[in-house]
Write a structure and sequence with these properties.
single chain, alpha/beta, Alkaline Phosphatase, subunit A, 2 domains, 9-stranded mixed β-sheet, 19 helices, 9 strands, about 60% helix
Length: about 600
């Protein structure tokens, strides 16, 4: 190939390789900003008002990885359902443990709490029901995974946590030896048994006002064997037996039990996405302060995972966590009309204060109508039913305002990002128009389309789907994306070989050029998709989080871009060799 003809191809290959390196750097930066996301709004807001105390003690039991449908097979939990109130609580996104544990304790989802992944380091930066309980003079306790102690550091008086004996020894509050791996079912069962024993001891000797008891069994077993397996069902049954033992040590005439889950699991094992079996979790409340049970045969009402923390705050008579996005489940609580109205107004007042601070930080217009004031006036006039209804209406209106404010900020940021996104769209088009010979660029276009289609066929053909639940576990995230990079690299090389064989008559030089331009089109389609995501959500986050399904596609695109870009170097030579092989095969005899 003459130097004059080879130089443009060499430059194109170099550009593709640089694009691959850029994709790697961009993906790393975006992930870092997602994990280290700092939420807008009032993080250190002052505490709100206390209220009447309904319960002498609240015991929050979190069964890790328990699907709602699996919870229906728990005989003792079903007994509790018939004695108290039941809801189907929806987990937030991503449906991972640490964001869910924070939502349960603070009422704040990831976009409000800043806890977006299980990789979050350090204590949370938002108020919690544990902190409010301590502020009110109540003792707090947590028994379960060590991450609870990390997240709620400074808000727990008594902690008993598990540790991994393969990596560390016991220290401080870490007194429960954990399993060596997720396949150690006996070890997992022992951890849950020890957690139940430690919780009962704390309840007997420490009398905490609020205790969190975390069972890890179903999640660990689900990851190892799948949520449709007999192993998972056995783990769920084991936790049900332990729950019976814990309740035997409670006096539900003075204490309140709240049983829920952080998330479910898909049949094959895994979570993090939005599948119904992942986001639908049980929520059962029984004991002191809980209203009469629902009528038999009536389907349980829907709730949000973020409703748990404010509901516990009302039961304990404390101020609500200041960053809570949830609502107390008043329909489940035995509250006098005056107390119901007063607490409803308290929630609305705090939510409006948060909205005003949120508006300042995002630079958007604050709520105009003071519907909270209307509710407060009705309360002052002792029109309790009206005050409660007005407070509920105010919360609904404020929720709509928060959504509109977020969209307003999104629209403004998208307008600012539009020039760069347009450049990402037009730059490859400009190359396609200016590159010579133009016919070769057009001939290569169908091969770029074939790559795009083949990449999705391979992805779905491997049984993956567009959800974080496809990872099965966090330990498999790295291997998942490495595998997708290998798939993309193999496809890129296969594409170059096909181009060389298809155009062997044009010679190895022309085949090499066509191979490079085919990968150019494959990379172009990926760049366009990355550019669209950048336009919609950007690559750094300080006011909102991206749609997670689009974010997953974005990362898959970047992984492919890295592989295609770096594969361009050997692909050109492979296309030329394939052309030579094609010529040899085409010779007579």
């Amino acid at each position: 190939m003459p130097l004059r003809r080879a130089l443009p191809t060499a430059l194109l290959v170099a550009a593709l390789a640089l694009l691959g390196v850029g994709g790697l750097l961009l993906g790393s930066a975006t992930l870092r900003h997602f994990v280290d996301y700092k939420p807008p709004g009032v993080v250190g807001a002052t505490s709100g008002r206390d209220g009447p105390r309904l319960s002498g003690q609240v015991v929050l039991v979190v069964v890790d990885g328990l699907r709602y449908d699996a919870s229906l097979g728990m005989p003792f939990l079903n007994e509790l359902r018939h004695q108290g109130a039941e809801f189907i609580a929806e987990a937030g996104q991503p449906s991972l443990s640490h964001p869910a544990w924070v939502a349960l304790g603070t009422g704040a989802g990831p976009e409000a709490s800043g806890v977006t992944m299980n990789w979050y380091a350090g204590p949370i930066r938002v108020d919690s029901v544990l902190a409010e309980a301590r502020r009110a003079g109540l003792k707090t306790a947590v028994v379960g995974a060590a991450a609870w102690g990390q997240l709620y550091a400074g808000s727990v008086d008594v902690g008993r946590y598990s540790y991994n004996p393969a990596r560390e020894g016991p220290s401080g509050d870490q007194v429960i030896p954990g399993p060596t791996d997720s396949g150690d079912r006996a070890g997992i069962a022992r951890v849950d048994e020890e957690c139940a024993r430690q919780a009962l001891a704390i309840l007997k000797t420490q009398s905490p006002g609020l205790i969190v008891l975390h069972f890890l069994g179903p999640d660990e077993v689900g990851h190892a064997h799948g949520a449709a397996s007999p192993d998972y069902r056995e783990s769920v049954a084991h936790v049900d037996d332990l729950l019976r033992q814990v309740v035997a040590g409670l006096d539900l005439a003075s204490s309140t039990l709240v049983v829920t889950s952080d998330h479910g699991q898909v049949d094959r094992g895994g979570h993090g996405g939005w599948e119904p079996e992942v986001v639908r979790t049980p929520l059962v409340l029984v004991g002191r302060g809980i209203a009469r049970p629902r009528l038999p045969g009536r389907a349980p009402a829907r709730a949000d995972q973020r409703d748990v923390a404010p509901t516990i705050a009302v039961l304990l008579g404390t101020a609500l966590p200041s960053r809570s996005e949830g609502r107390p489940l008043f329909q489940a609580l035995a509250l006098a009309p005056e107390a119901r109205a007063s607490r409803g107004v308290d929630v609305a007042v705090e939510r409006r204060a948060l909205a005003l601070a949120y508006a300042r930080q995002l630079g958007v217009e604050p709520p105009v109508r003071d519907t909270v004031g209307v509710a407060a006036n009705a309360l002052e006039a002792r029109r309790y039913a009206q005050a409660a209804g007005d407070a509920d209406d105010a919360l609904t209106e404020l929720a709509q305002w928060f959504g509109a404010a977020r969209e307003e900020r999104l629209a403004r940021d998208r307008q600012a990002r539009a020039p760069v996104a347009t450049l990402a769209l037009l730059a490859p088009v400009a190359y396609a128009v200016l590159a010579r010979p133009r016919r070769e660029t057009l001939l290569a276009l169908p091969f770029g389309v074939v790559y795009s289609l083949a990449s999705w066929l391979v992805y779905f053909g491997r049984g993956y789907f567009l959800s974080p639940a496809a990872f099965s576990s966090e330990a498999s995230v790295r291997s998942f994306f490495v595998g997708r990079a290998i798939d993309a690299g193999v496809l890129a090389l296969a594409l170059a070989a096909v181009v060389g064989l298809a155009y062997h008559r044009a010679g190895p030089g022309a085949s090499a050029r066509l191979g490079a331009r085919s990968l150019f089109w494959a990379a172009t389609f990926l760049v366009w998709q990355v550019g669209l995501f950048y336009l919609l959500y950007g690559v750094t986050y300080d006011a909102y989080l991206p749609d997670l399904q689009l974010a997953l596609v974005y990362y898959l695109d970047l992984v492919q871009l890295v592989a295609v870009g770096l594969a361009a170097i050997p692909a050109v030579g492979l296309a030329a060799l394939a052309a030579l092989a094609g010529r040899a095969l085409a010779r007579p005899g």
